[in-house]
Structures are given as C-alpha cells and as structure tokens.
Specification:
Radius of gyration: 28 Å
Structural class: mainly alpha
Order of helices and strands: HHHHHEHEEH
Shape: elongated
Distance between the termini: 62 Å
Strand order of the largest sheet: 1-3-2
Number of helices: 7
C-alpha cells in the first residue's frame, strides 16, 4: 500500500491542464442542456452516474482552485523577493559597489578576498555574494562569487553601481 507522501508526490506531478480538462468535461456532462446530452448520448450516463459526477466535479474543482491559489501566491512571493533584493542593491555603500564593479567590469564569476575583509563579509551577509569554496589560498584568502540573481539585476541596471 502506498504511503501518503507517495500519493502527494504523484498528485504534484499531474499537470494542471489535466485538472482543467476534467473539470470542463464534468461541467459539460453535469450542466449542459438536456438537448445537448441527448445529441451526445450522455443523458443515460448522467442519470446513472450523477451521484458520482457531482462530488467528482467538486473535488476536481477544489484541486484546481488550490493549484490556482498556489500559482498566484508563488508569483506574489517571487515579486516581493525580487523587490527586496533590488532594494538591497540600491542601498549599497560605495565600497560594496566597488567590489561588485569588479565582477562586471572584468566579466568574472569569482574574486578572491581575505575572510576578514569587512566589505566582502557585508556583501555575503546581504546574500549578494557567497563563498564559493571552503579551500583557501594563502591561509585566509577565499574565492567569492556573485549570486546569479545579483549578476542579472546588475547587468540589467548597471546604474545601481554608480
């Protein structure tokens, strides 16, 4: 017998378009005029299985509504996260901007700085750069890389570094 997490994983893998199609089909069977169901030879089917079609319609519609809710909430959260990230880039100090210019002007993905460098630590705490390796060179110099979202935002709006 499958456990609950297997069922949830299977549900998540089903495309939303499948739920839209099933909802449309059930709505057509349940709510179409009698003349249409006669032409489609569905009147007997609707009469025999109507007790099951109604709850199935409600279930599939509820699933569809939950997927829509999840979609819009993820969009809103993504929008808020992008706005917060952009605000971080707008409030950088001139030293921090200087470090970020090195990434863009040299078109490099990594720069090496000492772990005790306050500017790079500030950028790391703001989650704009990250230490890309735990192996140091010269005992305390580590490579730092720019997060992809920061690189994309800075290439799109280079005036943020002025």
């Amino acid at each position: 017998m499958p456990n609950f997490s297997d069922i949830v994983d299977a549900y998540r893998k089903l495309p939303t378009s499948l739920f839209v199609a099933i909802t449309f089909l059930l709505a057509m069977i349940l709510f179409s005029p009698h003349s249409w169901t006669e032409k489609l030879n569905l009147s007997e089917f609707r009469a025999n299985y109507g007790a099951w079609l109604g709850p199935a319609f409600l279930l599939v519609t509820a699933i569809l509504v939950s997927r829509l809710f999840t979609f819009f909430s993820e969009r809103i959260i993504g929008f808020q996260k992008n706005r917060e990230r952009l605000e971080k880039l707008k409030t950088l100090t001139s030293d921090e901007k200087g470090y970020l210019k090195i990434f863009l002007e040299n078109d490099t993905s990594t720069i090496s700085r000492e772990i005790s460098d306050g500017v790079i630590c500030s950028l790391e705490s703001k989650r704009i750069v990250y230490r890309s390796s735990n192996l140091s060179s010269h005992w305390k110099t580590f490579p730092y890389s720019l997060y992809p979202w920061a690189r994309k935002a800075l290439k799109k709006q280079p005036e943020l570094l002025n």
